[in-house]
């Protein structure tokens, strides 16, 4: 085995038991036939755990995967989070070991759960304060309503989009879909402010229904900030006054440059950052 | 471990060494970040091996995966094929163990090669003779030229399309893309005969550039049967006089019913079956 790296997980559990190996017949390996959740854990508590489990359960229903006992997943994530101050816990749930060759399923597959705990990444916290630099990806996302919204394991598009740049000063790339809709970043959702209008792309043709996206939509509505899910295009992006990214770990990142164009973080972005700040440091949902 | 099933592989090699386990950090498991080839082996010889390796190498180039030594793969497949009369050998080549969390690659990843040998499946050979029953899938494929043609490990669309039916008399489903183009079956390519015109969908927006598709295109052209790759629609499918499916293992399957409509195997389908028959039983390429 390769020597340990800081990016290696601290713990890997296979169906609840410490393990360093999985079956070469697992359908996630062959077909990306699975789902995952990446859960930020702070102060020993997993953040927005119920929302993560709700999305995982919905994904299982839509893909026809039996998730087994969700309470067991809940307990496992809590236990892993509770052992350290801060961590990232990733839960990968595959349809399980193949019971037949090929794409077909027998309906008797038993899901494989692999749970990883990683150290909270070392990084400068200036993204939230100063904003990040973002580019537009050349690659466009395929549109498939059957997969839209899910955090499934078919992620080659994101891998390829992330390979488009190597400049470490660029934090993220924004992606359009094949029909020209703005969708998201490679690992974040995007919000646009135009005048007093706050909006984020609909997740009906592609993209992931992000947990922090959902939190921001809810907090904005609760605080009386009008917000909507909409069909957005390159023109909406060009005419944006403010732009920000969301992700379960980072919360909100203002975008300070898009393809080199300067966009200083604006008042609506700052207001939303203030609204969600207490939720990020004091997990309400465990 | 579960008890052995007839569908279990006879042999699994991990980077050339017998193994029953892979790393839970493998990027194929997390993101479907890999490619595969499914090679029919007859008479102890892998069929169309050079074509399979050519497609694998092209896929590696397009995804930025270092395939390592292709001659080692060639030798391995030949050795596995040579030990038995008939078999299916699947080579799964992933980008390797993750060296960082997330989609980004470091460029230092070392590909993981997992090679499986399965028994040749027991099935009635009547598909080639009598034709098969086929349905149209409800799900449409997302379009992404960056992935089109490749036999990559992002196969949730095929898994979901295969889940649309359970009737064992239906052998395959035909899929359209999000913009309405006819693409392929879930595990086969499709050819249409209209009058004397033979055509198959272009593989420029989605779909897999199948090995048997390539063989049929070549053999037809060589024998003076006019054939073209084209943009085909539901209307082309409806007005087809003959329809057949291709796949590296099955060769050519005439379609005898499409969504219940009878389409007796026609003369051009039969002529192409005759043309490729010698290639299926006497592998020319090893």
Write up what this structure looks like:
Two copies of one chain form a homodimer. Chain A is an alpha+beta fold. The two termini of chain A are 36 Å apart. Helix content of chain A is 27%, strand content 30%. The model of chain A has no long low-confidence stretch (mean pLDDT 94). The first copy, chain A, has helices at 27-31, 49-63, 70-82, 126-130, 156-162, 211-222, 234-238, 267-281; strands spanning 11-14, 17-18, 34-42, 45-46, 86-94, 112-119, 132-141, 170-177, 182-185, 189-194, 197-201, 227-230, 242-247, 251-258, 261-262. Chain A folds into two domains: 11-119, 2-Layer Sandwich (D-amino Acid Aminotransferase, Chain A, domain 1); 126-279, D-amino Acid Aminotransferase, Chain A, domain 2, CATH 3.20.10.10. In chain A, strands 7, 8, 9, 10, 11, 12, 13, 14 and 15 form a nine-stranded mixed β-sheet that branches. Chain A has a six-stranded antiparallel β-sheet with strand order 2-1-6-5-3-4. The interface between A and B is large, with 69 and 70 residues.
């Amino acid at each position: 085995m390769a020597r340990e790296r800081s990016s290696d997980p601290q713990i890997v559990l296979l169906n609840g038991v410490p393990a360093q190996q999985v079956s070469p017949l697992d359908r996630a390996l062959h077909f990306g036939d699975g789902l995952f959740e990446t859960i930020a854990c702070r102060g020993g508590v997993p953040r927005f755990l119920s929302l993560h489990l709700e999305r995982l359960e919905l994904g299982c229903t839509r893909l026809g995967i039996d998730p087994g006992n969700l309470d067991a997943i809940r307990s496992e994530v809590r236990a892993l989070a509770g052992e350290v101050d801060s961590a990232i816990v990733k839960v990968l749930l595959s349809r399980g070991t193949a019971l037949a060759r090929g794409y077909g399923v027998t309906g008797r597959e038993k899901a494989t759960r692999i749970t990883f705990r990683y150290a909270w990444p070392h990084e400068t916290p200036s993204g939230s304060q100063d904003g990040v630099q973002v580019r537009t990806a050349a690659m466009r996302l395929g549109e498939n309503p059957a997969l839209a919204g899910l955090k499934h394991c078919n992620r080659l598009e994101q891998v390829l989009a992330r390979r488009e740049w190597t400049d470490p000063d660029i934090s993220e790339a924004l992606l359009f879909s094949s029909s020209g809709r703005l969708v998201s970043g490679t690992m974040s959702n995007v919000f646009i402010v135009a005048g007093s209008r706050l909006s984020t792309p609909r997740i009906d043709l592609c993209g992931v229904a992000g947990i922090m996206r959902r939190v921001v939509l809810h907090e904005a509505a609760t605080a009386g900030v009008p917000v909507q899910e909409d069909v957005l295009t390159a023109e909406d992006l060009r005419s944006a006054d403010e732009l920000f990214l969301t992700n379960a770990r980072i919360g909100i990142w203002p975008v300070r440059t898009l393809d080199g164009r300067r966009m200083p973080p604006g008042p609506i972005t700052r207001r939303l950052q203030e609204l969600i700040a207490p939720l990020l440091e004091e997990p309400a949902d465990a």
